[in-house]
Amino acid sequence: MKEAIAILTGGGPAPGMNAVVGSVSKTFLQNGYRVIGLHEGYTGLFSKTPRTVEIDYALADDIFNRGGSHLQMSRFKPSDKNFAEDFNLDFFLKNNIKLVVTVGGDDTASSANRVAKFLQEKKYRIANIHVPKTIDNDLPLPTGSPTFGYESAQDKGATIARAVYVDARTSGNWFVLAAMGRSAGHLAFGIGTACHYPMIVIPEMFYKTKITVDKIVNLVVSSIVKRKIMGMDYGAAMISEGVFHELSDEEIKKTGIHFSYDDHGHPELGKVSKAHVFNEMLENKLKELGIKVKSRPVEVGYEVRCQTPCAFDIVYCSQLGIGVYKLFTEGKTGCMVYVDPAGQVSQLYLKDLQDPATGKIPPRLVDVNGDKYKAVVDHILCYITPDDYKAAKQWLKNPEEYDFNKILGL
């Protein structure tokens, strides 16, 4: 029987999913392999009746530059019981599968590592290679290399945020935007920087103080008043949804939101509009202060996940897909394919990226000590400093409470 590979996509979508699947498929097909796509992520590996699709060259060529994922995705996380009782070895044996390619983010990568360990313990000679994906850009790749999908999401997000900023300037309003980013602020920071937003709030900013609802709101108020001092009655604030993950239970209660949680223990932030929550809290604060400002909420999330990938991501994903074949022919397994900025392919072993205590892959955070971050904070953001206290008293009784550096404990 002809040798085959299986490929699955896990987690949430990101621009470039189909470019990876298409490029992996084209490369292996040209080298004599069958390619079997598994729908619903890891579900297929633990089901006696997996939903599959035979990927031929024509299908791979049809999907490689499309948004979304031709293979239906899932956040299914296999339990120890699933591994012990449900792992579908027959699927691998009957189809002569020699490699499982997993495409996803940190949770998918962690599960891929468990699959690799399981196969090794059971002496199943099936390789496993992971392709790193997330618009959050928070997988710990070397030399600052982005996770695929991030550049496309940032570009589309900037298109939306730019139009919102023009609306703010045109109508004399403020807007509060919330961008995806479960534990890191890369997407919010990238979009906000691309649009020169006067305030960007990301979880990494609070490295010297505890994140609270009041501090988040006060940062935006600081920007609003600073712009008033500058004679500008409009603006926009970009806030990363990741700040929710750092709020204590008590602080979350202050927002009035009751979260449900996914299989990985993460608050299901996609079920609520973070922009609406932030905007409502801001409006209440402005009313309390007697500052007349109209503000509107805008959520930046699902509309950037399935857009057509930009040229960078199509090229990058093609390199990653072809890189899977290179690593496979070199006998690599239990690893993540990595392509450096020079285009060189290598592997990162998942076990080396994991936290030894939790077994999870820790997120890569925005470097708040780097020149990029400092340049934005020092030269693009607008906020109150001691030099503004006198002028700010026109709107604020205690301007020092809205001093950017004091809010952040700097």
Characterization of the model:
- There is one protein chain.
- Helix content is 41%, strand content 14%.
- The chain has 410 residues and is α/β, with parallel strands linked by helices.
- It has 2 domains: 4-148 and 309-353, Rossmann fold (3-Layer(aba) Sandwich), CATH 3.40.50.450; 150-305 and 380-407, Rossmann fold.
- The strands form 2 sheets. The protein has a 7-stranded mixed beta sheet, with helices on both faces.
- Helix 6 crosses helix 7 and helix 8 (213-229) crosses helix 11.
- The longest helix is centred in the middle third of the chain and has 22 residues, at 150-171.
- The protein is elongated, with a radius of gyration of 23 Å.
